[in-house]
Amino acid sequence: xxxxxxxxxxxxxxxxxxxxxxxxxxxxxxxxxxxxxxxxxxxxxxxxxxxxxxxxxxxxxxxxxxxxxxxxxxxxxxxxxxxxxxxxxxxxxxxxxxxxxxxxxxxxxxxxxxxxxx
Length: 118
What we know:
The chain has helices spanning 3-28, 30-45, 64-68, 75-97, 99-117, and strands at residues 55-57, 60-62.
């Protein structure tokens, strides 16, 4: 995958994160949703420097800076870092709300995983 592939990875990531936030906010509240996705980001950043260019707000990810620095990012590292982050979001959702809510969100995450394997 070249630069175009990286852009597609970021677009898929942005779409799934926005979708997760939209589905979560009415259930746990906008502030709790923001706190959850930010907490997952802080945790994932420890081992994945690619994520330092990602910012989170109430609507989901702000990927402009991440997009701007794609030329300096290895494709595999980008993919793995974003997968780890989304998986961390799902783990926190499961920890906080139980498996019922996580099961409702899992199809969206599975689609994201599948897109990145193509």
